[in-house]
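okkk here we go again. third time trying to get the magnesium ion bound version out, last two times i messed up the smiles copy paste (missing a bracket lol). double checked this time i swear
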Amino acid sequence: MEQIGTENGGARVVLFFVPTGGQGKTSLVRDIGYLLAQRGSRVLIIDPHPQPSFPVWLGGEEGTDDPAEPLRLTVAGTSLDVFCVHTVAAGLPGFAAALFREASFVVPRYSSRYDFILIDTPSYPYSLKLVPYEVADLLVVPAETSPKGTWAVDRLLNEFEDLEIGTSALQEIGGYRSSARRELLIVPNRHDPDHEVDRRMVGELTERARPYLLAPPIPAARPIFEGALVRRIPVPVLAPRTLVARRLRSIAEMVAAA
Ligand SMILES: Nc1ncnc2c1ncn2[C@@H]1O[C@H](COP(=O)(O)OP(=O)(O)OP(=O)(O)O)[C@@H](O)[C@H]1O
Ligand SMILES: [Mg+2]
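finally!!
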């Protein structure tokens, strides 16, 4: 029988998580997933939304013959897989089941097939976001360079040590892998260096991130995958020399190296 939190069999499991909505989790899962796949890694994205966003955003086909298997998406010649949890539990009451399933079945089942498993989290209910925490190796925390983003990071950091203690205790009781501490990567997002408040918030996030990893800020920019909505037609998804592309590429490297 598969256990929660058993060895991840090679895949690095990355949970995208922040205590408030709209900070850029889903966008970052998409961008980092795409960039890791583009550099040759095998990538699985777990999409826990009742209305999955990745197949649409990445221009792939919706639906699959076998709902228990991930859906392969090919974007501008780069392939990555998406497991849509909505196929097993739709609607808000299904979130608990969906997230539990991610943690207890999806990750151990697929971890030997992939180099990276990226788990997006829905905005709420808050407590259920933590269900997959136990199987994560790395937490990626996007936060707008605004007071709301700083508030969200504060809230997460207040709980982080507690989470670590609770998770280690659970793993010991269950005889699960005794994992090292999770790494935590804070990613300042939607940054406009022309605004004083944005510059100040980067400073504050840097202060708070000191014991953890801090990514370079992602500029406020139009969503880069807009063009990929033309199905089956390879379209440029990321202008390689833009600042946003360079920043995202260095964040993908940090995710790979953490
Ligand atoms: N760097 C950025 N520049 C401009 N817009 C951005 C940036 N990052 C994200 N956005 C936009 O902000 C909105 C929220 O982003 P996203 O959906 O990725 O956040 P989320 O954390 O997944 O939200 P939710 O909590 O609702 O799931 C989207 O419209 C997205 O296109
Ligand atoms: Mg989202």
